[in-house]
Amino acid sequence: MIAVLPFAFDYSVVSEHSGELLRGLLLTVEVAACGFALAAVLGLPLALAGRSRTPLLRIPATMWIALARGVPLLIVIFWLYYAAAQEGLFSLTAFIAGMLSLGLTGSGYMAEIYRSALSAVPTGQFESAAAIGLSRAQAFRVVILPQALRTAIPPAMNTFVMLLKGATLLSVIGLADMFYAAKLVAVNEFKPFELYTAAAVLVIAVTLVAAIGSGLVERRLSKGVRR
Amino acid sequence: MSATTTSSLLELQQVTKQFGTTTVLQPTDLQVRRGEVVCVIGPSGSGKSTLLRCVNFIAPPSTGTIVFDGAEYKPPTDHRWVPALGMSEEKRLTRLRSEIGMVFQQFNVFPHLTVRENVALGCRKTCGLSRAQANERALAELTRVGMAEKADAYPERLSGGQKQRVAIARALALDPKLMLFDEATSALDPELVNGILAIMRELAEGGMTMMVVTHEMRFAMEVADRVIFMDRGAIVEEGTPEQFKAPQHERTQTFLRSINHG
Questions:
Q1: Which residues of A touch B121 (CB under 8 A)?
Q2: Residue-range definition of the domain harbouring residue A185
Q3: Are the Cβ atoms of B114 and A224 closer than 8 angstroms?
Q4: Sorting pLDDT into bands at 50, 70 and 90, what band is A224?
């Protein structure tokens, strides 16, 4: 393998700095997980408001979703971290600014995921829930949502991976995440190839673990439904 | 007025249903007495299902009044801007629905709940029974439809006929005053139809008030107290099964001929 490469891959530089990289990785995963949690929590009411018959809810929700999905993550990060502080609006730590940027961007995607998952539940389920005297809220909570969540898991997983990759952008506002650590070592040791490869491998590893985890959750929620 | 409220459980007064500009139910008057079995027949698209769905406001009527068990229900006002204003009206309709059982052509059992949970859910949420009481109740209803041994199975493991039995038990668990059957056997394999019809027959004999949309003419002729023939969103002819052996209206004659030889 190594002989095929036109240059030597120096494993030692990676293993020497593995502590920094892993500490950075932990921070990357933390900020991505917090951002995803925020997105998952915001997404559901957004999706419901977007489906609402009253324009008072539907229009703001639709605008929010369009903005969240349309504005590049890097601009959101800069806006929340630098621009807002510069204008004296508020000043945030890099972690909070990062979490908010990921959460706000992700909320648009999660809202769309919930929306399509909710509309995938057959209307007969609403009707039979209503027919046994469940209120709309009860029907939603015990009949519709559990079925919708099951369909939402695989695409929600995609959003998490997207946010995890997006989290590497946070090094630009000085968050000492995994990519930040890799860049620092790469510059100090003149080994960019080794360090950036290591960074990529680490992100892929986390992605795999997350995929396995979501598979388990999906299996749990799919009780009674063979897929 | 007082005479009608005591003798009839359900009364439709000039009930209509529009979807956009299409009228699917012409102004319809109908009374159903307590303990009466009314079978609704007619070609597809004739408004039979719509009629049934208007009764429990799953598809709220566009105009008209429905009197059920002495209480009057009108089409709900559309609070488009502030939906919260419709809450008390919605609550009243929710209570109405819990007094009317409905069985659908496509069963509509809840796939993510076990058979027992399917049946217990309504009791737990609307009659305020505890989980244990609701489960007990569910088991009793499941025994009645011959599904007790499947109580812990998920619906995917069941045949169509078994799913429909669960759906019937789920409706009966709320001890409804009226049962609506919307083509309950139309999606079933032929050999499963009779089992479901037998349960419905038993219910009718037990004095349950029922409205049955069906294509099973033999069942309608044997079980119904009254048969209603609908076409193009209106009741064309109604009468006892005996009267339907020699229908008056030409449209009814054509329909009955076509299904007898079809």
A1: 132, 134, 142-143
A2: 11-226
A3: yes
A4: low
pTM of the model: 0.87
For residue B113, which residues of chain A lie inside 8 Å, CB to CB? Answer: 224
Bridge partners of A191, per DSSP, are: none
A61 within some domain: yes
Task: Say yes or no to pLDDT of B103 above 90.
Answer: yes
Residue A6 lies in a domain: no
- Across the interface, do B81 and A56 touch by the CB < 8 Å criterion? yes
Whichever domain contains A199, its CATH number is 1.10.3720.10
**B174 vs A: CB within 8 A:** yes
